[in-house]
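Hey,
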Amino acid sequence: MFGYLARRLTYYIVLAFIATSLTYMLASLSFNPRAAYEARNPRPPAAVITTQLDAIGVNDEDPLLGRYGAWVGRTITGDMGLTLSQQSVNDQFGARIGVSLRLLLIGSILGIVLGVLVGFWNAVRQYKLSDRVTTILAFILMSTPVFLSAVLLKIGATGLNDLLGIQLINFTGEATAGFRGGFWEMIGDRAVHLLLPTISISVGLIAIYSRYQRATMLDVLNSDYIRTARAKGLSRTRATMKHGLRTALIPMTTLFAYGFLGAFLGATFTEKIFGWNGLGAWFIDAVQAQDVNVVVAYTLFASVVVLLAGFLADIANAALDPRVRTRK
């Protein structure tokens, strides 16, 4: 099993490098950082602009391969360069990564856990009223983009606050500006701000995972080994939980990994809509500013996180499926 996981990890590292390199090439060819300096008022002299671009490593007058080689050399040492505003990408990245991971991980975990439970419940209650209602809701949620869900949640929260005459749900930023209080008061304030962004990310994941989990569970419930377990005296619930759910989760592990990419993209828009100063909002601002180093740093982070999710899915798959553990 360890040989299998080592090969998969190597494969993921190569993919992350390729994805980030392609992003650097595309961003360097399509962005025009020089125009960002030329648009300033007063406009800096051409020599000053060239000096600044050289310092950042994005001078379009230099050969692309030379810039790429310099970027690879810096990145290997852990230096992701400077932004167009002469700030350290590493410092900005470190200040924002906790904000994004908090939102992304909580939303993804909720989506996985609740999606599996809803799918399992619907499978054992096939064609009952609860199954039909959740099926309709799942298809509605799957067809709703994350940014639309986020906007609708903001509108609903605003209407509820106006109706009650109090600020019951705060949704702008990751915390209330100027908030003072003890540890638990701070935790409560952040939890309230986390509520709507987390829901906007997780509801789509719950809908998708529940439909796939329902389908895999239905295949398992009709299998011979479940009937054999029942014939040996196991109750329906125990046979389903002990033998059915574990088997049904095996094909779901891959879906969890690559569904994480959808959660990552959803978190990018959610941060911007709810005013979170995370990596997603930073990335959108960087694209608008044509900041090559920031876009590449975000892509590196995204590829590492998504591929790490794939590696964790491989570990889960190996833990659930004995056939994987026998691979050399």
